[in-house]
Amino acid sequence: MPEMNYMRKLSRWTLLDAADAGQLLVITCQFCNATHCYTPRDILQLRDNMSLDRLVSKFRCERCNRRDYMHLHVHHPNSQDFGKLVVRRLVKVKTVKVPVWEDTTL
Q: Which InterPro entries match (predicted)?
């Protein structure tokens, strides 16, 4: 029996499902090969619960500033990963006040 397409699996898997299963989200830019691991609980503080195949389009590479080469896969950490795997954690969220101007005539 052929294995199911990986992107089809991601379309049924949400951020809450990945967080409850204790999984990590590994996001890789396939253009410049930059890779970062995130916890789903940290991303849930920034976004609503959504399927993982739609989540990858919300990321942009910090190195090359491209969005179309991003790839996501789900990683379940094992005992060998603890103490060695680097995970990006959300420390705080900064909001920036930007003035909005409008030109009117007197």
A: Heat_shock_Hsp33_C
Count of structural domains, the chain:
1
Domain ranges, residue 65: 6-75
For residues 30 and 102, give the distance between their C-alpha atoms in angstroms, rounded to a whole number.
Answer: 41
pLDDT recorded at residue 81:
86
Confidence of residue 11 (pLDDT cuts 50, 70, 90): confident
Between the CA of residue 69 and those of 40, 95, 100, what are the distances in Å? 21, 27, 33
Q: Which of 4, 2, 10 is nearest to 71 (CA)?
A: 10
Mean pLDDT of 16-31: 94
Helix (H) or strand (E) holding 28: strand 24-29
Please report the sign of the dihedral spanned by the C-alpha atoms of residue 47, residue 96, residue 39, residue 33.
positive
| Residues 73-89: tens digit of each pLDDT | 999 999 988 889 999 99
